[in-house]
Amino acid sequence: MDFVITGGAGFIGSHIAKHLVSTGHHVTIFDDLSNGKKDNLDSIINKIEFVNGDIRNFDLLKNTLKDTDGVFHEAALASVQESFSKQQEYHDVNVNGTENVLKLGKEFGFKIVYASSSSIYGNPAKIPIEEDDPKNPINPYAQTKLDDENLAIKYAQMGVRVIGLRYFNVFGERQSRAYAGVIKKFVKKVRNGEPPIINGDGQQTRDFVYVGDVVQANVLAMNSNVDHGFFNIGTNSTITVLELANLIIDSFGLSLKPIHGPELPGDVKITKADISRAKKLLNWEPKTRIEEWLKSTITTRTNLDLITD
Ligand SMILES: NC(=O)c1ccc[n+]([C@@H]2O[C@H](COP(=O)([O-])OP(=O)(O)OC[C@H]3O[C@@H](n4cnc5c(N)ncnc54)[C@H](O)[C@@H]3O)[C@@H](O)[C@H]2O)c1
What we know:
single chain; 309 residues; alpha/beta; Rossmann fold; UDP-galactose 4-epimerase, domain 1; 2 domains; two-stranded parallel ribbon; 17% strand; binds nicotinamide-adenine-dinucleotide
């Protein structure tokens, strides 16, 4: 089949691209390289089409999407901290850009599986978080993702097949700074024998989900007979940021003590996904645990470079 991946040169999009190519699909990537890198695609670059474009450019997007069977829409500006100083740009790319994809879904009839975010829940009222729980975004980035969901609902009512996957904290090879950047920062410090720096007391909990599992969720959602809906994509297990720091220190066989800095504004305190809806309707289940992945990755130099680059 023919698929387009917006944001396909980024962390998650490039993993989706590699999987689709390896399973015999034709892939076109639409990315403006504002944060993604062609290097992320080096092993498949000769097997895919690459369009260097901005999702706000409606005509170019239309030309790229007109004959596709399905769109994995990953393109977005994704830094919580940056979204405070660039609110208008974040809205423009994340909301208006997403509406362009939805408009074209309406015109051409392809199915859309897109990246929503656990950040729409804000600080949750209860744990684990279920999909219908209240949405209280606490930063401009999260607000753009909630606006996208409202657009998805509106376009679904017009017949567009659109599924939003609410990723929790995605980790893995070539991970981006957003979300799982904490792993990258800690590993960089600890591999140099320096203590990791934690923002706040380190008691923030995170639900880290492996990128390979996120790829599976995308593929299952695209192939499912579900036309519209939102799904938590996490693991239903958590680790505190302090535990994560200590796990990385242990994995290097060192005995360092983390340093604590000030808390970050807009930083959510607790996340933990209830994933029963994705299990039931998409037949999806995460397979890789962060503890095991970190231990095995840290012992291999080449893999380690893929975390810290
Ligand atoms: N990484 C996570 O843990 C996580 C969690 C929740 C949601 N998400 C969402 O998942 C998606 C992918 O995230 P990621 O971690 O791979 O980030 P990423 O920054 O690595 O990938 C995003 C890609 O979008 C591209 N892009 C940005 N603006 C664009 C534009 N105007 N036009 C075309 N391309 C553009 C970037 O160049 C980049 O390649 C994003 O929508 C993000 O908000 C990620």
